Structures are given as structure tokens and as C-alpha cells.
Amino acid sequence: MELEQARKRAAELRAVIEKNNRLYYDQDAPELEDYEYDQLTRELKTIEAQFPQLVTPDSPTQHVGGTPSGKFSKVAHAVKMESLQDAFSLDELREFDQRVREAGVTPEYVVEIKIDGLSVSLEYRNGRLTRGSTRGDGLVGEDVTENLATIKSIPKEIPNAPEFLEVRGEVYMPHAAFFALKEQQELEDKTPFKNPRNAAAGSLRQKDAKITAARGLSIFVFNLQQVEGKTFTTHSETLDYIKSLGFPVSPRYNVYTNIEDAIAEIQRIGEARGTLDFDMDGAVIKVNDLTARQALGSTNKFPRWAIAFKYPPEVKESTVRDIEVTVGRTGVLTPTAVFDPIFLAGTSVSRANLHNEDIIEAMDVRIGDTIQVRKAGDIIPEVIGVARHGENSVPYHMPRVCPSCGAPVVHLQDEAALRCVNPECPAQSLRNLIHFASRTAMAIDGLGEAIAQQLIDRQLVHSVADLYDLTKDQLLTLDKFKAKSAENLLKAIASSKQNNLDKLVFGLGIRNIGDKAAALLEAIVGLLAEIIQIVILALALRIFQRNSIHRPFQVNMIIWLQGFAILYCILPIVQGLFIICVLGLNQANLYPRLILFQFLDIGLQVLPGLAIIGIAKVFRYGYSLQNEVDQIL
Asked: For the chain, which end, N or C, has fewer CB atoms within 10 Å of the first or last residue's CB respectively?
């Protein structure tokens, strides 16, 4: 490769890597798989090694990928939280061993599982957790103490602890918690986290610690950063000490006196990775002697005394037997490849999401084809290509009618997805009902997927508005539903009426209106009311100033009373009309009764104002009549 070619390619690689660093570390939403990212980084390192003049201080090979966000206060790390150098072949591990020995160290190695999560620091003073922070860029992280305190496996107090202690660990999401969260996100038609690592990072960076607490996070501690009043000679001793204090430490760590034994352990870990209940993205070899570590030192990014081995993604072939299409809450049709079961990354898989029609056409996936399947992040099966077409196979086309209700499906606004726009579609009704009752929407406890399915199947509920007409007798017809359960559900439904407007708007499932947009709309409604009030009061004051001087005080007071009553009537009318506009025409078709209820609510709020206006008119007429009588007399 010539210098100019290398310069151009290095610039391209830096742009792609830095973009994915921001998505991965800061937004928890990467576009690249770990293996693809590693290969790009490896290519950039190779170019920079061949052309040292192209190395720049801001190159992603020269610094840790993450940066502290603005959501939390910053924490400066007293001990730098370094990244690790990656190896992709066993020979690279042997080269690492040679470099260590050439530095004058006769090594003893500790081999550990590399947990795939979010790296954090935990600080304790006199046995009490005082601060927890993320790695950030290695020098400065984010203070997430409140969120970390919700993780049950993190000790809040340590008996017989030193005066000060700092440990480093990896916060992760167990597979069971990840699948439960992913299922809930899909039911609510939210974009699910791509893998447990991103789910863990996104959950830990929540401003509301209650959300973090509900996500089922855990931690493994793998390093002693600082300690007062204690000295150790080896890394394995520090792990034993940390474990004795009650911390969950690296689940598998062993000491080896030569690199070949360490490599054998790495191979054993690789064979067992499918049996773990958490994600791992490799295995780590560390020099055990702490004094030798100091002698070896670090680069500006990596310690020279450790290296991380990255396992290649496992890819297997299978035959497509069917392509199933399901309908989501917003009517999106999602195709899923059903193939012969294969054992992949420790588990048997037979299904993989094909996402949309464009992806099917791009890969030309057909029923009967032999496809290549891997697990994204070693957990979610995905089709990465077609190895060969089946005999007599034909191109697959998505259905033109909804598989649930038979209505025509359409593309909206140049979307890749096909949608069913039938408001009475049973599949949508079920998911709309589940979303409406979810904790982030109307929070109707006891209305889960099983109950919602029964309500739809027995035609007790056609839209969310029907929930508020349910009776105890109707609920008692449901399977395994007793009197107490029926009463509790009816109470939860009644309690949901007290929710704020944003919960209702979000619960209605309007496309492109999430919880934040719903809260913003609620704020706009309140602001609109205040603006109208100010304008009407200003106009009324102006009119009063111009005319009050010519009228008796009693008449002025009656006019003022009328004015306030009119204002009282106008505000709910404007607010109600605004809410109806927010629902949109498509929502008016879906939920006509909710629109009717809004008009009834307007009427109930306007009635007192109309009564006051009527009373004021009577008083004003009486006062005028009295004046006429006085003049006659």
C-alpha cells in the first residue's frame, strides 16, 4: 500500500471507528458487531505500524473509546481505568509472552473470563460504599453511585474493611433479565437493546434509579485499584482478598506458570462459553506478580502486562423451512426465518429475525435455502447470508395482506417496513392493550399479556376504552380469575384515571410519540392554558379600564364575574380541542369513545362556568330593572 492510499484508508477507518465508539460507549447502540469493529481497529493498527508518520494523538488506537456524558457529574479516577490490548490468534498470545520475557520477567499468569458489560469503580470508606463511577475515557468517568447502589450483588457495607478501598468490576445483565427486558420492549414496540452489554450500560445510565433497580443487573469484580493498610504481592491474592470481603469476583480465575497452559485454559473457556448465563467477549491473560507489572508499565492506552483474547464468532449453516410473519403493536409486519435447529454458541436455535422486506431481498433469502447463521454478541441469532439456494426455490415476497386480519398492508412515508393500518386488527389490539397497561404508560397492575389475550379472545375488549366498562362478572369468566383478582384489576383500572395526561397520550401508542414527547405535549397544554388566561385577562382589563368609569361599582363587579366565568369556559374547550388534535385523525378512528369522553369532560368543566354566567346575567338584569324603577319613582 502506498503512503497516500494508506493515509486515505486510515482516515476512513478512524471516522468509522470513532462513530462506533460514540454509539457503543456513549449511546449504548452500536451499529457494528464486536468482531467487525475489532477487525477495523486491527486494520488501522496495521496501517499505523507500517506508516508511523500517520499516527495522530486523537487516533482511536491511542485512547480509550468512551467519554463522560453530561447526564451525570464527572469523577476523576485516581487510578487510570485502562483498556486491554486484543489478540485474535493463539500465536499473538505467544508473542505477548515473548515480550514479557524479553523485558526480564519470568511470568506467572492469571487467566480470567472477560465479562462483556460496563466497567465501573466502587469506592468504600470505613466499609461503606461512598462512590461508584463509570470508566468514561479511563481518566474521567460519571458518578452513578445511586444507580449502582440498586444492584443487589454490590455490597453496601463491608465488615472488617480497610479505611479506604477501591475495586474495579464489570456490571452486566444476565441472559434471563436481558430476554425479559427485550420481550417487554418488543411488546411496547420500542427498539430493543441489541445485546446484554448495551442493555446493562443503558440501564446503569438512567437518571431514574428505579429503572436501574428493575433491570436485574449484577456485577463481577476483577481488580483491586487501591487499598489502605494492606499490601499484596500477586493479583490472585487480591482476588482472594476481595472475595473474602463479600464481593462477587471473576467466576473463573486460575494461575499458570507457562503460556501454553494459559492458552489451554483459554480454549477450555471458549468451549464452555455457551453454558454461561452472562455474556463474555473473550478471556484475559494477566501477569500475576504486581511488582513485575510495575516494571512492565503501560502504553498511553494499554497495560503491557495483560492481553485479551477475542474468540471468533461461530457461524453455522442450516436450511430455511419457512418464513413466518407477525404483526406488531403499530401494525409492522416482521418476518422470521424458521430453519432446522443448529447448536450455536452453546444453545440450540431454529429462528432468526429477518427484520423487513428490504433485507430479505438484499440477501435473497428463500424457503429451502441453505443460510449462514451466527449469534450477534453470542446471544441473538441472525442470518448473515445465503450459502446456496435450494433446488427449485423461488424468491420470497412479503404478504400483501395482514396475516392477522386480512386487511391490505402498505408502506408509509418511504419506510422499509410494511404496516397493517386496520384499526380493528386483533394482533394490534392485543399489543396496544399490553402497551396501554404497561408500567411506563397507564400502569394497570395485574393486566399482563395472558389476561390481555383472554380479554381480546372473548371480545370483552376491542380497544383500550373498553377497559373502563369492564365489570366484575365479566372478569370472573376469565380462566383462573377469582373474585379477589377481579376486584384488584378493577381497582387498578379505576386508579389509572388519576394519571397525568402524558401517561394517557403515551399509552395510546401514537406513532412517533414516546414518553418524552408525551410529557412535552402535556407541558404545552398547560402552557397554552396559561397563555390564553393571560391574553383574556389583559383584554378584560383593557375593556374594564375604558368602560368602568361610566358604570356603577355593582355593574362592574357583575361584568367581571361574567368575564371570569367565560374564561373558565374557554380554557377547557381549548385544552380539550388541543388534546383531540394531538390524537390525530387515525386515533379518532381507533378510539372514538376516548374522543367522546374528552368532549364530555369539556362539558362537565364548562357547566359551572355557564351557571355563573347565567347567575351574573340575572343579577345584572335585576340591577337594571331596579334602576328603571328608581327612575320612574
From this structure: C
Is 114 annotated as catalytic? yes
For 470-498, how does the pLDDT look when each residue is reduced to its tens digit (9 = 90+)?
988 888 888 878 888 888 899 999 999 88
The span from the CA of 175 to the CA of 192, in Å, is: 14
Residue recorded with cell 523485558: 103
Nearest to 44 by CA among 26, 63, 24: 63
Beta carbons of 82 and 64 less than 8 angstroms apart: yes
* Residue 124 near residue 165 (C-beta atoms within 8 A): yes
Read off the pLDDT of residues 397-429 as tens digits, 9 standing for 90 and up. Answer: 999 999 988 889 888 776 788 888 887 788 887
Is 214 buried (19+), middle (13-18) or exposed (0-12) by CB count in 10 A?
Answer: middle
The C-alpha cell that represents 349 in the structure block: 436455535
- The tens digit of pLDDT for each residue in 230-261 reads 999 999 999 999 999 999 998 889 999 999 99
One-letter amino acid for residue 138 of the chain: G
* 553 has a pLDDT exceeding 50: no
* Cα separation, 284 vs 289, whole angstroms: 15
Which DSSP string do the residues of 252-321 spell out, in sequence order?
-EEEESSHHHHHHHHHHHHHHGGG-SS-EEEEEEEE-BHHHHHHH-B-SSSBTTEEEEPPPPPEEEEEEE
Three-class secondary structure of residue 537 per DSSP:
helix
In 3D, which of 495, 530, 512 has the Cα closest to residue 582? Answer: 512
Span between the terminal Cα atoms of the chain, in Å: 114
* pLDDT for 360 beyond 80: yes
Q: Which three cell numbers stand for residue 564?
A: 371570569
Beta carbons within 8 Å of 220's beta carbon, 6+ residues apart = 115, 169, 170, 172, 248, 249, 250, 251
Contact call for residues 455 and 446 (beta carbons, < 8 A): no
Q: Would you say residue 147 has pLDDT above 60?
A: yes
Cell 483474547 found at: 309
Q: What is the pLDDT of residue 241?
A: 95
d(CA 83, CA 61): 11
- pLDDT the model gives residue 549: 45
Place of cell 460496563: 118
Identity of the amino acid at 599:
F
For residue 25, which of 145, 131, 140 has the smallest C-alpha distance? 140
Q: Is 254 left (phi over 0), alpha (psi -120 to 50) or beta?
A: beta
Say if pTM beats, i.e. exceeds, 0.85: no
Planar angle of CA 83, 87, 89, nearest 5 degrees? 170
Give phi and psi for 629, each to the nearest 5: -65, -40
CA distance to 188, 313, 507, 610, per residue, from 443 (Å) = 13, 41, 9, 36
Closest among 231, 128, 242, 224 to 168, alpha carbons compared: 224
Q: Which grid cell is 238?
A: 487480591
Query: Which is the catalytic residue, given 19, 74, 80, 114?
Result: 114
Q: Choose the most confident range, by mean pLDDT, from 160-169, 547-556, 621-630.
A: 160-169
d(CA 449, CA 184): 10
